[in-house]
Amino acid sequence: MMIVAHGSAVQTPGVAEGGAPRPRTVYHGGAFMTAEDVRLPASTQALHYGTGVFEGIRGYWDPTAHTLLVFRLNEHLERLQRSAAVLRLDLGHPIAELAELVLELLRRNDCRHDTYVRPMGYKLALEPGTSFGVRLSGVSSALTMSALPMGSYVDQRGVRCKVSRFRRVPTNCVPSSAKISGLYVNNALAMEDAVADGCDDAILLDLAGNVSEATTSNVFVVGRDGTVITPPATADLLPGITRASVIELLAAEAGITVVQRLVTVAELKDAAEVFLTGTGVEIAPVLSVDDVGYGGAAGPVTRKVKDLYSRVVHGELEAYRHWLTLLTLG
Ligand SMILES: Cc1ncc(COP(=O)(O)O)c(C=O)c1O
Questions:
Q1: Are 32 and 143 in the same domain?
Q2: Which of 36, 166, 225, 271 could hold 221 in an S-S bridge, CB 3.0 to 4.6 Å?
Q3: 242 in ligand 1 pocket by Cβ < 6 Å?
Q4: Do residues 152 and 282 make contact, with C-beta atoms less than 8 angstroms apart?
Q5: Do both 301 and 166 map to the same domain?
Q6: In the prediction, which pLDDT does 19 show?
């Protein structure tokens, strides 16, 4: 989990003059430094117990305005703070300062490309007087933020999904509205199993057998009567910022009220269209779930949502410019 900051698997953001790769800058332990200089002790508590929280935030590069458009930065940082509170983590900064740190990180990395920002708060070390054990209080907090170039994360033409044999961890075991690192073991197991079966992603069910979410995204179902449905927060899911944006966009721009209610597997498989929403996946059409297909390509509602979302994140819809934080890089 800490590997993000050491970065061998990520692209180098750019090439400095003279052809040498530009070292990637991260924010770590209260300072900006090159990713290679990040050192974490083997005793890092979050590494042992998964006691960390994180966010994924996207910035879209506008080459004409030389500006990075960061999508819903405040909403992501608010969720980070809420997740941190669940784990008694002190991020050390109010949201306005976190936002400024993210922008400074992007500036220092000269992010003239579509970018993914990954802030992480995590439990670091036992404080004096705290005895060895699995706990939250009496353990210090740390904050690390990194940024990397990222285009499409999944095939935008569509993904094949499997209903996972792993059920979503219920919220009364680990609060699902918090983006907690350790919880992602659940998602990783489901993803691995889906890929082994030749699929691109897994759809997890809650313990009652209703649709919860995919491994890094929320699920929308378009019924044969045109009704658009998405499972409610009570289905043990992470209520996505993209999900909320899509609900708002469909209502305002297409006159479609998304119904939030439990979705059965039968409804999922009988749907006219299914699509996923998330910061990473953006709007991804689902081509199939198990052995059921949805026509081989994105349906009309999915295409509408994809188009609206793309125009919003690229700053083309004036009414939603307030969802974007603009960082001009000159
Ligand atoms: C498990 C899970 N559900 C849903 C989402 C979608 O959330 P958002 O739209 O805020 O990125 C994500 C991605 O962050 C996720 O990891």
A1: yes
A2: 271
A3: yes
A4: yes
A5: yes
A6: 53
Using most ligand atoms within 8 A of CB, pick from 238, 247, 249, 281 the residue to mutate for ligand 1: 238
Assess whether 122 and 181 both reside in one domain: no
Q: Which atom of ligand 1 is nearest to the CA of 76?
A: 10
**pLDDT given for residue 6 in this prediction:** 30
> Angle, to 10 degrees, between the axis of helix 95-108 and the axis of helix 73-86?
120
Residue whose tokens read 């042992």: 48
Residue nearest to atom 4 of ligand 1 (CA): 217
Residue 82 belongs to what domain range? 2-9+22-149
Nearest atom of ligand 1 to the alpha carbon of 179: 16
Instruction: Give the number of domains in the chain.
Output: 2
Dihedral angle, C-alpha 276, 279, 162, 171, nearest 10 °: -100
CATH code for the domain of 168: 3.20.10.10
Q: Tell how far the Cα of 279 is from the centroid of ligand 1, in angstroms.
A: 7
**Active site annotation includes 123:** no
pLDDT given for residue 99 in this prediction: 98
